[in-house]
Amino acid sequence: MNKLTKQIVIRLGAGIIVLSLMGCDRLFPLPGDIVERVSDGDTLVLKSADGQKFTVRFACVDAPEIAHSKKENSSKRVRDVNQFSWGVKAQTRVEELIKQSGNRVKLNIIESDHYGRKVAEVRLKDGAFVQQVLLQEGLAKVYRAYLRKCPSKDLLQQVEAQAQQQKIGIWNDQEFIDPWEYRKVSK
Fold this sequence. Notes:
Layout: H1 3-22, H2 24-27, E1 33-40, E2 43-47, E3 53-58, E4 61-62, H3 70-73, H4 78-100, E5 104-112, E6 118-124, H5 130-136, E7 141-142, H6 153-165, H7 179-186
Parallel strand pairs: 3-6
Antiparallel strand pairs: 1-2, 1-5, 2-3, 4-7, 5-6
Helix pairs in contact: 5-6
């Protein structure tokens, strides 16, 4: 076999290998569930390996609310504008994190809530803990009403205390109303 033929065979073989590997995700699926969309700062819609869609509520934290209707979206009330502004920031940050993780997350499901959502600790493919990131950046609060079921409660309370002490995000906003209080007064 001459030198030119040998190079062609090697390049052709390499090309076939590369093309084969491009389809490997069908043969060897990536780990984790696929995120279909980020509903808000603490809720995701996912698709499992078997194609089933389900909703996941972040365990241990509560992010600010987002507007869910045209009426809410056009509200001029200070408490609404403030809550929704922080809610959009939290949602946008979660979207960024999910995108950086290739739209895949790993779940530690703790329970299901009364809306039928899975309640879970959510990690990215690099192991980053989404709830921890939100608390560190002042985009959520520890949800103390459900803290007893939270496996990472000590870590999350510590992270929240640091953000509060440093006045990061919502901790630097005198007008901010806790999401659970906001929901109570807005019903």
